[in-house]
Amino acid sequence: MKIIIAGAGAVGTHLAQLLSKDDQDIVVIDTNPEKTEALTDSGNYDLMTVNADPGSITGMKEAGVQHAHLYIAVTPDEARNITCCMLAHTLGATKTVARVDNAEYNEARYHDIFRNMGIDSIIYPEVLAAQEIVQALRFSWVRQYWEVHGGALVMLGIKLRESAERMFNTPLKDLCPSDSPYHIVAIKRDEETIIPNGFSALQLGDIAYFMTTKKYIPEIRRLVGKEDYADVRNVMVMGGGRISVHVAQMKEDRMTLRIVEKSEDRCMKLNELLDTDDVIIVHGDGRDTETLKEEGIRNCQAFAALTPNTETNILACLAAKRMGVRKTVAMVENIDYVAMAEKLDIGTIINRKTIAASHIYQMLLDADVAQVKCLTVADADVAEFIAQEGSPITAHRIREIRLPEGVTLGGLVRDQQGMPISGNTQIQPGDSVVVFAKGTLIKKMDRFFKRPEGGIVSQLIDKLT
To answer: Could you give the angle at the alpha carbon of 104 between the alpha carbons of 100 and 109, nearest 5°?
Structure first.
């Protein structure tokens, strides 16, 4: 698949690095030769670069836009991204994606307008990041929370401590038998990501990813021994940038936010944007522990460090934990720092690059996929596939279908009802199926959920089973 990325900034570079590992034909366009040379000189990525204005028709043609399956515009300029995608569509690109900075453009009512302009998808990483943060704040005892199909299924990423001792060293086939209402679908252990089988066992310090329905969340909470974690009511946010504004606008009604911002001018702007009783703007330096204490951090159940500086965010979360806050969220923009932040037990880690990559990666899949999510601290992706009529996944019970190693099915949604999957489950056409896969294996699941071309279903099924 030929993919053109316009813009070699932080998001564009991360996408190029990620997609080049997936054997895609990648071309990056940017006017800055230093940025493109940094990509090619490293020798770590199989891609080409073009030094040209991303909005130049000549530059687009040089990059081969007429043969592009996907054109991604992620320059810092919203208007340029929209223009580039319109030109790319006109010149022959099959699909286009534009990064924007206007939350209004992301609203569903405007999707058709952009499609008519030749733009298949709009991404606003700041809004996507805010959505993840709000989800993370829902439960103080959960590292990562994700709803599938409108909440019919939920994924819970939970750090296992001494309170979960009864779960350790027990095979998952005994801990979560086939009739269990929840399954453990992935495990992060130190530097290793494990897609477990029935003989895998949990250990102290693991992050276990559970798939279940909302009904059984309290049971999982008891199982992992985290009943004593207080529900999140009061949240302190360090940094008053755009992500913090979106978090304040999206938060649950039961929550009160205190945003600590060191710029007086920005505080005045925040007061205009967030004129509500449950959002309090504080002029001060969030790095000053005395300021945090004066503003009541000891009465907060959660602390989110959302400044542009990764190191500041990590240190602030460590300080908040020392002051008794159990739930911390850190914006970690430097990918290289994600593993370090996890080792420091920071809590929930948010990275805009991986969030944007999740959204774009969905467009690379040929099957009908509702959404894709990267597990930030684990080398795994989660996708919600829709099973098509005549697809191999619907031909037999799951135990009779040979899935790739490193892949597991977490659950399915049928008639708006979520349910776990066992070896005896028979997937039906129209089912939404949650797939967990290590690395880039999610792409290999396309063939299982698509109707085989030419209608020769039985031949393909024989090869897969």
So the answer is: 115
